[in-house]
Amino acid sequence: MKTAVQIAESRKSSAMYAGRPWVLLERGWLAFRSTNWVPVVTGFVEPVLFLLAFGYGMGNLVGDVTTGSKTIDYTLFIAPGLLANSAMNGAIYDSTWNVFWKLNESKLYKTMLSTPLGPLDIALGEITWALIRGLVYSLGFLTVVTVLGLTPSFWAILAIPAASLVAFGFASFGMAITSFFKTYQQMGFINIVLLPMTLFSGSLYPISVYPDWLEKLIMALPLWHGIEMVRAFWFGDLDSGVLVHICYFVVMIATGLFVTSRRLRALFLH
Amino acid sequence: MSNPLISVGGLTKVFGDFTAVNGIDFDVAKGESFGLLGPNGAGKSTTMRILAATSTRTSGTVEILDKDPEQFGPLVRAHLGVVPQQDNLDGELTVTENLYIYGRYFGLSKKFIKGKIEELLEFAQLEEKRDVKVEALSGGMKRRLTIARGLVSEPDILLLDEPTTGLDPQARHILWDRLFRLKEQGVTLVLTTHFMDEAEQLCDRLVVMDNGAIMAEGSPSGLIKQYSSKEVLEVRFGSDRNKEVAPQLSQMCERMETLPDRVLMYTEDGEALLEEITKIKLHPTTSLVRRSSLEDVFLRLTGRTLIE
Fold it and tell me: Dihedrals φ, ψ of B84, to 5°?
């Protein structure tokens, strides 16, 4: 039987990382088992409602959409965009409001940092938890879409890893931003950014309808990259553009992890 | 002290232009129960956070088991059990889940923790509350659980910051009993308190802190012997007359303190002194003879009472 001290000595644990991010997942699961399921279900239902309302409602008016060289049914067009949205929502829910609570109200991270755990363990663990949530949401959405007969081919399953990358990126970035916020008013800022981004990022129509400047602006935002990436895998249209989207998210993930672990250290180990 | 567990030299912590801890030195030996006694704002909690490797120092040296907590944070924290001033139990989890997950933070195996939980539930007298969410516990139960949680990793040193603040007298006595058992088992305790009775009950040795500095160091009885007399006679003449009679009284004892509501007279024999006072026809409205306490030591050292 190893003691706590032997465990700490056996790995070269640095001040930042003890090499145990999975204990955060364990804690997340224990808390989740007895949690309130309403927000969890809402997060999943939202994109499904969008799909039904816009796909079958608007879709009947719109008919087909031409994007690039392809002309496709409207409902089929919006499905991958909503999948990306669903992944983002799942990841954001955990990495912003839940993280805010643990930072400022329950002081959970402060408690964890009084044990041998390091800030990077917490950042990695919490972001992975948020990523898993995003993944579960997108799997659920994909199931619904498949049942409705909207999956173009078996290869649409590749949209799931793409959606996970979207979830990972938003979880990482969301936690980094949240670590700077101290009040509920500041947290409201996140919604102010999220809502227009969700509406304008091209999940419901191609952004080529915009004036040039707006199109450029949207193309700088992460959700557009997420939607385009998921859509590319969904339809199997893989070109060099996909690489750009992937790189965008890799940078987002790395930046988020770096900033979050630095912030946790500055907040609780100073 | 040969090979102390904790060794602190010239420790200073400055926040902006406020010096919270001002060049303090002390050692703690293995198995010792060591206290930091002082009023709120004396620098006790800041010192504790530095010992706990969750705060950096401005200058000075700190060694815990020969390791600098600033350089070896995770390793030092693996040696420690921490009981913070504010209960910070995991409100989303039950009693046993709190103990379990805390052990996991230290990297301990599930099997080991499962066995440990039974022992700790018994220690904290919480067997019947094992599956209850911690929010439903009373203040005393929460505090006992926080202490039990700090023991999951079988630490060499248990750090307790104001362990009984905010608890009712009964809960305090239960807690003291638990801490006393730990002491008997040879766990090294370091605690801060602003209750002199707590310091007298639990500490083998303590330092008296005020304004970030150490005013005195010793065992509770040693400090009382050094800084106070054997007995204290407390007399009240009413708030107006206390000052009036003070010059007369001061002739009659070794030392005297005039507080707003009472006069404290330090003497070897309180009853005899009271008789003398009555003889010269000064009739106090109330009087009390008691043994000297750490409160008197603090008053002597700082001119102030501990709880203001």
Answer: -75, 165
